[in-house]
């Protein structure tokens, strides 16, 4: 990536939309993953010269991250989906309760990295080998910076920064 996504600086991002659901309701129907993906992807496409193309392309990554969150939580509480925009990146943030929060504070997957994501041995589904490979692959395909961190207590956040440039291949 030419520029690290504002070094994950939230101050560089303006909020676009936020959606909060009860985890039990979210997990009651797998189809909620698709509905939320469609909603968030449509918003991400706004302001681009070809909004449908940009939305469709990023909906793949968005859907994978939402499904990862779906499979990773069984705890009661709230799941939050938020979108932010800066001049050069769009940020997706998914925060949800997780029984065993990560042992490490941060786990990164950036498109410029060529080594495994730290924390691959964690017991959390987000960090099991299939989740780690997924994050690394998504980061490479979408030229994204993806990280996972604790959100205090027993909550985890998946944070993905996608370049807003439309020159995907």
Mean pLDDT: 77
Q: Over the alpha carbons, how many angstroms does the gyration radius reach?
A: 15 Å
- Percent helix among the residues? 25-40%
pLDDT < 50 runs, ≥5 residues:
1-7, 101-106, 111-123
Series of secondary-structure elements, N-terminal to C-terminal = EHHHEEEHEE
Organism: Rhizobium aouanii
Protein name: Histidine kinase
Task: Please give a quick description of this structure.
With 169 residues, the chain is α+β, with helices and mostly antiparallel strands.
Task: Describe the protein in words.
This protein has 169 residues and is α+β, with helices and mostly antiparallel strands. It has a single domain, classed as Histidine kinase-like ATPase, C-terminal domain (Heat Shock Protein 90, 2-Layer Sandwich), CATH 3.30.565.10. The chain is built from four helices and six strands; from the N terminus they run E-H-H-H-E-E-E-H-E-E. The chain has helices at 23-28, 31-45, 51-72, 129-141; strands spanning 14-22, 78-85, 89-97, 106-110, 145-150, 155-163. A six-stranded antiparallel β-sheet has the order 1-2-3-6-5-4. The longest helix is centred in the middle third of the chain and has 22 residues, at 51-72. The radius of gyration is 15 Å and the shape is globular. The two termini are 14 Å apart. The model is unreliable at 1-7, 101-106 and 111-123 (pLDDT under 50).
């Amino acid at each position: 990536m030419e520029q690290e996504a504002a070094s994950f600086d939230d101050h560089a991002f303006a909020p676009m939309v936020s959606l909060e659901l009860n985890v039990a309701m979210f997990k009651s129907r797998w189809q909620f993953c698709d509905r939320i993906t469609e909603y968030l992807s449509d918003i991400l496409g706004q302001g681009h010269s070809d909004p449908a193309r940009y939305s469709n392309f990023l909906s793949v990554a968005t859907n994978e991250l939402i499904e990862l969150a779906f499979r990773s939580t069984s705890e009661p509480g709230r799941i939050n989906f938020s979108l932010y925009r800066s001049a050069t990146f769009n940020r997706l943030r998914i925060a949800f309760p997780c029984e065993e929060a990560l042992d490490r504070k941060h786990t990164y997957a950036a498109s410029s990295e060529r080594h495994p994501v730290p924390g691959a041995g964690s017991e959390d589904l987000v960090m099991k080998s299939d989740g780690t490979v997924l994050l690394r692959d998504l980061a490479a395909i979408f030229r994204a910076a993806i990280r996972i961190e604790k959100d205090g207590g027993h909550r985890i956040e998946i944070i993905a920064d996608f370049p807003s440039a439309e020159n995907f291949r």
